[in-house]
Write a structure and sequence with these properties.
Two copies of one chain form a homodimer.
Chain A: H1 4-13, E1 17-18, H2 21-26, E2 41-43, H3 48-60, E3 65-68, E4 85-88, E5 95-99, E6 104-108, H4 113-121, E7 125-126, H5 137-142, H6 150-153, H7 156-159, E8 160-166, E9 172-174, H8 188-192, E10 201-208, E11 210-211, E12 215-222, H9 226-238, E13 245-249, H10 251-261, E14 270-277, H11 279-295, E15 302-304, H12 307-318, H13 320-327, E16 332-335, H14 342-359, E17 365-368, E18 373-380, H15 385-404, H16 423-442
Parallel strand pairs in A: 2-4, 3-4
Antiparallel strand pairs in A: 1-2, 5-6, 6-10, 7-11, 8-9, 8-10, 12-14, 12-15, 13-14, 13-17, 16-18, 17-18
Helix pairs in contact in A: 1-3, 9-11, 9-14, 10-13, 14-15
Chain lengths: 458, 458
Amino acid sequence: MPNPLHAELAQLLGDRFTTSDYERQQHGQDESSLPPMLPDAVCFPLTTEEVAAIVKLCTQHQTPVIPFGAGSSLEGHVFAPHGGISVDLSRMDKILRVSADDLDCTVQAGVTRQQLDQSLRQQGMFFPVDPGADATLGGMASTRASGTTAVRYGTMADNVLTLTVVLPNGDIIQTGSRARKSSAGYDLTHLFIGSEGTLGIITELTIKLQGIPEAISAAIVGFDALDTAVKAVTEIRQAGIPVARVELLDDIAIKAINQFSNLALAEQPTLFFEFHGSKATVQEYAEMAGEITHAWGGSDFQWAVDIGERNALWKARHNAYFACLAYRPGSRSLTTDVCVPISQLAECIIKTKEDIDQSGLTAPIVGHVGDGNFHLLLLVDPHKPEDFAQAEQLNERLVKRALAMGGTITGEHGVGMGKMKFMQAQHGAGTLAVMHAIKQAIDPQNLMNPGKMLPTLE
Amino acid sequence: MPNPLHAELAQLLGDRFTTSDYERQQHGQDESSLPPMLPDAVCFPLTTEEVAAIVKLCTQHQTPVIPFGAGSSLEGHVFAPHGGISVDLSRMDKILRVSADDLDCTVQAGVTRQQLDQSLRQQGMFFPVDPGADATLGGMASTRASGTTAVRYGTMADNVLTLTVVLPNGDIIQTGSRARKSSAGYDLTHLFIGSEGTLGIITELTIKLQGIPEAISAAIVGFDALDTAVKAVTEIRQAGIPVARVELLDDIAIKAINQFSNLALAEQPTLFFEFHGSKATVQEYAEMAGEITHAWGGSDFQWAVDIGERNALWKARHNAYFACLAYRPGSRSLTTDVCVPISQLAECIIKTKEDIDQSGLTAPIVGHVGDGNFHLLLLVDPHKPEDFAQAEQLNERLVKRALAMGGTITGEHGVGMGKMKFMQAQHGAGTLAVMHAIKQAIDPQNLMNPGKMLPTLE
């Protein structure tokens, strides 16, 4: 029996609507180790108006709507636990407007980070949020993503001016304006950032840009121990030195990227730094940072000043996720994502490293340590349920530790399906009740990405 | 007949509950030119739990609750158009925790900007949001305030980590955590920032601090014309020079502060700059800025390097509001607050200046021009309704101009009662409907600061 919603969507979109097994499979999985859950069909809209039409039809047929960007999420955000329609925004990939005068631009939600970067760099600008993956800007906003440069430039929460959003009722709204600041009512821009498609679909973003700094330099520093590396970063942050990036990789992560990216870095806990500014300021910042790392027993800075070296280094860092997977062939990663106040970071990492050692799991550590955020890649054999159970147990201990330290269960990956079970411990019943009230107010039929983010109230 | 709610509040709070005419008068007015509207009574709680008890009683008696901080708002935020209870948080003035390691602190909502500043400076830190007025931190969060330093450090939206909020049902919630970033669910911190007491009462704030920079220097530059001053700022922003403050005062504002603060500044459009950083970077930034202002015909920088001179200069700038009122004795100010993309700022100011000249009103211009935000102080004689009408007309033209330029009706003062009539033009019906849905979900009886921010749906 033909599905009437499918028939209407096919009429609307032609061959940009599909129920093929291949596309359903592609849209029911992400980069996580969670088992896939397929949507019933996939749409590829080209405009905000088409998204609105799709959402209206789905609402009429009380069918779930799951937005999809690049599928690079790590917590099952794009899964379809209740079936429904995956709305793939990747063909909405137009850069609609760039203003060098205002240092802002407007893009469709399917524009990817690298696509935008290539276009902007030719014009002397860049968009500073860099989660590593070549995610879509819409997906990055939906998960409140950040990454290596948040320590200097902030997260998606800090770099979006206004969003175009399709609401569950099919209305198309603007959440804000192009003004750099505004006190005109509830902050809907920040409400939709990080809402993971549960309140509507982001179709366009107006974002803040940066001019490419006069000087950029990168350096790496090795340490004998993990805790001294972290303590050096803590002191650098406390001293207010405006590092543009400061990433920690432990000895196992370095081994993995050496193998994957054919590098020969010393296999020890290592900090990757980048400094942005004028030539004089970059030199000054680097000297200040170098003095602190040296005092904590760090090696001399190994510099990567020219763009080729620098790109090789950061490409290796960005590929750390895949390098770590390749380090234990055939494995999947359960990736943790806590973020704690920086004064607690060294203790949090050290205790976690002890947990890893006791577990017998292989789990490289990579971290945006300037923010207090780090990841374990708990490498598990997909055929061994006991691996998963052990990794899950370790993650739970880590999450509880972070919460006890005043931190968060997820610094940048989002909640999706994987972290729902920790939301009550994070927020408490009263705060969760407010989130539920907002969800109910905006999506009363619970059709927008259902089964994600908000746990059922107890 | 005794009011039963008043009796219960008196029992709860003793002499920290009052219906005295004096206190009702004090709590039914602000710094705006709007006519006062008095609450029925005033409470002075000392703790979050007392605020929760007050709110619960008011909810039981279906009585409006109006939070009150320092009364320095400019749009009637603290007025009681439907009567009710003013909850004055000024006695909740404890700094609860300061962490130099994490550069954050937790304060009660009644702590004022200057009180916090005095405490922090002794510890080598400062809180960067500076609206000029000695507002409470709770009030600053409620209106999403900013001020002279937003160009470098952002607004309240950028500098709060988490809030303690009393909800309309009396629940006490935390909106976030002390982590520097988080992707754990809806961003309630940003939702409550700028919500003007319409969703609950902020009772505690955890905020980000900054280390006092090694070097600070301030300078003023005069220009022959307003537009060249603005164009110089635009170019400085576009060049990415990280000025800590850049304020514009027109010739009339300079005359007013010369008289009020006994200064002898050249009476012409003038930029006030401040630079923060290391000695070397401050010098570098200042030289870069100086080259640009010079190219636009600005005078040489007049430096105020030592702390006494610098404080005198900024005190004069902060007192500009009162200086302008004193410039036309007996007047009140209708203060405008648009913010536009910086590429539009020069045109917006020039056209507005033409409007002022045609109107015959006295209206000094002061502006946080680095953000695209500026204020007219439309000085009106409180006994002349025709003055008000003319000022209101000019403000409406300005608001429409800003919206046409992609800007906002209020950069930092908030909506209150004064700007409600522009909310539909700012946001459109769909966006306003979302705001109403949120309000209805969290405050279904419409008891939290009713008659503010959200216009009745048409």
